[in-house]
TrEMBL record:
Organism encoding this protein: Ceratina calcarata
Name of protein: peptidylprolyl isomerase
TPR repeat residues: 335-368
Database matches in SUPFAM superfamilies: FKBP-like, TPR-like
E.C. numbers: 5.2.1.8
Catalytic activity: [protein]-peptidylproline (omega=180) = [protein]-peptidylproline (omega=0)
Domain PPIase FKBP-type: 32-120, 149-235
GO MF annotations, alphabetized: peptidyl-prolyl cis-trans isomerase activity
Length: 461
């Protein structure tokens, strides 16, 4: 059994650790990650006050987030996978002067036998679905983190299937990493990095190379990749809240110009980000002076119109429609907004709605030949839809009629055949007098000759 070691930050003996079973490997859990442990807690006299093992229910918590006693955040951070250790925790690193009644008295020194089962990285994904996990290697020094628009200097090492596919230094504006080949997952993660931090990132395909993969790096579709990222330095981006109205206008112009340049280069995703930033700088602040007020409204309107165009280019038709709706709130008879919303509805297979927008365009500008062409397209699609529906309904009615006919025939088949036996197959005992069948009756078995003697007295009937 190992000798207890003082692992308290101040070396004051407040937390000692005694390893009972060595762990495997060299990796340790990183701050912010979720650790999974079993534990048994006792007082110094051996009284057990809690045990996850007794409940057969491993305990999970986020490391270094202050959700457990100080001794745990300190001690568990030093444990490898599979390791079992005893932490002895002085009151100031446990429950202090108050204790935790009724089981833990005030000023109690506690012992915890802890088994490290496993851990997961810190979830940095926006949806908290584990699609971006961080494992810190070197903690950063400064509590400030980069924001969108910050100029960052990083070193990236990308690994797939244990092979390095990129290893480089790169400088870029956060939010525009796509322009220099930096995947979205790295950008999202960097928003939580501190200067000097080095971390391993596990990034699923939705924030990496998606369903397309990357042929240059030999990465297949829907692949999870790993990056080791070091944030060497950064310069904070401009925060909208720190600017006066005139400065907001100037920043919005800068982002609008960036968006236009990205659009011209067919970088529609980046252009979308820039136009959204324009609205974020101006949308929620409305106390502009008269001269700036008009400029603000024109910039926001332009941003929404351009957003709609970007979304149409990327076949994001619902988003395009929504952007047009925002533009039409600002300018209800805007020709471009009406036309682009009509295009969105048309792409969403709603020509009967789209045609109304194109007709409204012609009311605003009767010479708009593009709208006239779109109306013709809508009418053609509507006719095709009606013909298709008519054919569909006709087929349905024919089907129903055939089913009704089959049901009727089935009912008739279930009824007794009155021509069978009683009328249709005459036996000798059924003839008057029990006589033999005449030649006519043999040729016509379903007809009964009524005369008993077989004469022709009924021949004129």
């Amino acid at each position: 059994m190992a000798t207890p070691v003082d692992i308290s930050p101040n070396k004051d003996g407040g937390v000692t650790k005694e390893i009972i079973k060595e762990g495997v490997g060299s990796e340790l859990p990183s701050p912010g990650g979720t650790v999974i442990v079993h534990y048994t807690g006792t007082l110094l006299d051996g009284t057990k006050f809690d045990s996850s093992k007794d409940r057969n229910d491993p305990f999970q918590f986020e490391l270094k987030k202050g959700t457990v006693i100080k001794a745990w955040d300190i001690g568990v951070a030093t444990m490898k996978k599979g390791e079992v250790a005893i932490l002895t925790c002085a009151p100031e690193y446990a429950y202090g002067e108050t204790g935790s009644p009724p089981k833990i008295p005030p000023n109690s020194t506690l012992k915890f036998e802890i088994e490290m089962i496993d851990w997961k990285g810190e979830d940095l994904s926006p949806e908290k679905d584990g699609s971006i996990e961080r494992y810190q290697i070197v903690q950063g020094k400064d509590p400030i983190t980069p924001n969108e628009g910050a100029l960052v200097n990083v070193h990236l090492t990308g690994v797939y299937n244990e092979k390095i596919f990129e290893d480089r230094d790169v400088q870029f504006t956060l939010g525009e990493g796509e322009d220099v080949g930096v995947i979205e997952g790295v950008e999202k993660a960097l928003e939580s990095f501190k200067q000097g931090e080095k971390s391993k990132l596990k990034i699923k395909s939705k924030y990496a190379f998606k369903k397309e993969g990357n042929s240059e790096f030999n990465i297949p579709p829907n692949a999870t990749v790993e990056y080791t990222v070091e944030l060497k330095s950064f310069e904070k981006g401009v925060n909208a809240w720190s600017l006066n109205n005139s400065e907001r206008i100037e920043q919005a112009k800068i982002y609008k110009e960036k968006g236009t340049n990205y659009f011209k280069a067919c970088r529609y995703n980046l252009a979308t980000k820039m136009y959204k930033t324009v609205t974020s700088f101006l949308e929620y602040r409305k106390d502009f002076e008269e001269d700036l007020k008009t400029e603000r409204e024109n910039l926001i309107l332009s941003a929404y119109l351009n957003l709609a165009l970007c979304h149409l280019k990327m076949d994001r038709n619902v988003e395009a429609k929504d952007a047009c709706n925002e533009a039409l709130i600002l300018s209800p008879q805007n020709e471009k907004a009406l036309f682009r919303r009509g295009q969105a509805y048309l792409a969403l297979a709603s020509p009967e709605i789209a045609i109304k927008d194109f007709q409204e365009v012609l009311r605003v500008e009767p010479k708009n030949t593009a709208a006239t062409k779109q109306i013709a397209i809508c009418n053609n699609l509507i006719k095709k839809q009606l013909a298709k529906e008519k054919k569909l309904y006709a087929n349905m009615f024919d089907k129903f009629a055939e089913e009704d006919k089959q049901k009727e025939e089935e009912k008739l088949r279930e009824q007794p055949d009155v021509m069978c036996g009683a009328l249709g197959e005459w036996g000798q005992e059924e003839r008057p007098g029990g006589r033999d069948a005449t030649a006519f009756e043999k040729e016509n078995p379903n007809i009964l000759m009524l005369n008993a003697n077989g004469t022709d007295e009924f021949q004129n009937m």
